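Q: Here's a chain of 312 amino acids. Please give me its 3D structure as tokens.
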Amino acid sequence: MIVGVPKEVASYECRVGLTPACVYELSRHGHLVIVETNAGAAVGYSDDAYINAGAEMVGDLAAVYAKAELIIKVKEPQPSEYEHIRAEQVIFSYMHLAAEAGLAQALLERDCIAFAYETVTDDSGCLPLLSPMSEVAGKLAVQVGAHALEYQNGGAGVLLGGVPGVKAANVVIIGGGVVGSNAARVAAGMGADVTILDRNLAVLKKIDNDYNGRIKTVYSNQMNLEKAVRGAHLVIGAVLIRGSTTPKLISRSLLKEMKKGAVIVDVAIDQGGCIETSLPTSLESPTYVLDDVVHYCVPNMPGMVAKTSTIA
């Protein structure tokens, strides 16, 4: 099979679909891998590294799409790529089609075969291709949330872990899956007062056991959610409904009851977001303030740490 790896064209997206090690494995099993020039340069993979692994380098994106039977990339195809997709060509990338009706229609019109990383499920029911990016996003959510809480960024000027004699910030995480559990680990490690809400008691029991009660676990119903959000300095939306848009768990009216200078990091934004007031932002301009609450809603958070994410 001819496998193509184009350079990502989405804004501030520096990840690459295959590392040289992956190219080497495909090449030694008889596949031809075509890589666009400088596709991996931003994360330290030179063209020579790909050539030494057995790849053939081509000069532009159009050439990759023209030659390849299978396209492996990171971000969903961008509008500038639609015209290059051929009928029956296989596209393998993150798609998040529940929140991207335009992309879904474009893929149908191009008559291609599209596989979404985030829907690939193993025999145990886990999501092996989504989980590494969820781990990255969960850890980053605390990092960017702490930064957004700083006064010069519109936040309340609260240090996440506090200092002796001053209370730590209240961090509320909605969802105890891969994103939520990784966010909780980092927030607790920074000394924050962490509460995680979920509707799966088995998930809550595991978190409680893992952290010996250091992280508060609360069953997620409307009353508990509203109480937690009102008292939070940082709220992390970590909700995932497989193959569907996420429900809006924080309404505009509830937002107005939050602390002035509080921060929301809506990791679920790539599936539509779990906060009514969430709108997609970018790594170039990641936040906006509404009703005195800072919103961070970047869909491709793992792109911030492109090297780690590519290898993961």
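Q: Can you summarize the key feature?
A: The radius of gyration is 21 Å.
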